[in-house]
UniProtKB/TrEMBL annotation:
GO molecular function term, any single one: ATP hydrolysis activity
GO cellular component, as recorded: cytoplasmic side of plasma membrane; cytosol
GO BP terms in the entry: negative regulation of cell division
Keywords annotated in UniProt: ATP-binding, Nucleotide-binding
Protein name (record): AAA domain-containing protein
Length: 287
């Protein structure tokens, strides 16, 4: 494991050894862009806040940041100000909705997408100062397999890989798993299948990914859940008002709420009562 990743990991273990709060660090990656990673992170944050979790979202897509935009905000300061020494990490935290805070990346800055070792270490060390402010730090990593993305993923307690059922997205999700395997042996990997039309799609996709990860990489992955394709998601992005706030009863958000419950360890059934996968997922989650 490289330096940056080990810095955060040692912060994580120091934190776990301490008596203060345990802030869980959960990074979400995808491989392919445009599969719904940011939409998922934003709505997962809202669903976790409904469960009384204090959430900070780090926009780890440092070059093409947009979490604040999806929340309908324009952040005044970003990680760029932290790196330049102009602001402290507490100063750049942007309160959005429901007590959620965002650590904004900076859009259109190539150099931020490719932080050098010292800069990334600076960000990671600063993150440790947020320990007592949140129960969960959700990291929305960038698409692709850049070193900043891999460092964030490897340094986190848990990694959620989100994909759609489309073959290119699945291939890139596998590519991401492969890159992660090369960097770090011990990984807590969970899969979310987004934009499905039938539960059987999620079942088939997960089984393919699970099989390939086990056979070719020797990796164990777990299914965290799936989300239906829902036109209201696109509408909420256009309106810059997150789905969980605009349409909490929507199909996609109901499944994100279910996933949030799975993240917190709640033993609950998927919202829909149809389909044979329900039994499968229930038994996977119980193991
Ligand atoms: N469950 C869903 N149903 C319908 N549309 C969705 C769903 N999830 C995401 N989308 C749509 O997919 C598009 C891409 O979503 P988003 O920006 O969240 O992807 P991303 O993976 O973060 O992309 P990037 O890697 O480029 O940042 C958006 O238009 C969004 O509305």
């Amino acid at each position: 494991m490289n330096d940056q990743a080990s810095t955060l990991r040692s912060m994580v273990s120091q934190r776990d050894a301490g008596t203060h709060n345990n802030m869980r660090v959960i990074a979400v990656g995808s491989g392919k862009g445009g599969v719904g990673k940011t939409s998922f992170v934003v709505n997962l944050a809202i669903a976790l806040s409904e469960l009384n979790y204090r959430v900070i979202v780090l926009d780890g897509d440092l070059g093409l940041a947009n979490v604040d935009v999806v929340f309908g905000m324009t952040a005044k300061y970003s990680i760029r100000h932290l790196l330049s020494g102009e602001k402290r990490i507490e100063d750049i935290l942007c309160p959005v909705k429901r007590g959620i805070k965002v650590l904004p990346g900076a859009s259109g800055m190539f150099e931020l997408a490719n932080l050098d070792r010292g800069q990334l270490k600076n960000v990671l060390v600063n993150l440790g100062r947020l320990e007592k402010m949140a129960d969960v730090l959700l990291i929305d990593t960038g698409a692709g397999l850049g070193h900043t993305v891999l460092n964030f993923l490897c340094a986190s307690d848990e990694v959620i890989v989100i994909t759609t059922p489309e073959p290119p997205a699945m291939a890139d999700a596998y590519g991401l798993l492969k890159s992660l395997k090369g960097q770090q042996e011990q990984l807590n990997l969970k899969i979310v299948i987004n934009r499905i039309h039938h539960e059987s799609e999620a079942e088939i996709c997960f089984e393919k990914l699970e099989h390939a990860a086990k056979k070719f990489l020797g990796l164990r992955v777990n299914l965290l859940g799936w989300i239906y394709d829902d036109p209201l998601m696109g509408k909420s992005i256009m309106e810059q008002y997150p789905l969980g706030l605009a349409n909490p009863e929507s199909l996609a958000y109901k499944y994100i709420q279910w996933i949030a419950g799975n993240v917190t360890g709640m033993d609950q059934r998927p919202p829909s009562s149809s389909g044979g996968i329900r039994k499968l997922i229930f038994s996977i989650l119980k193991n």
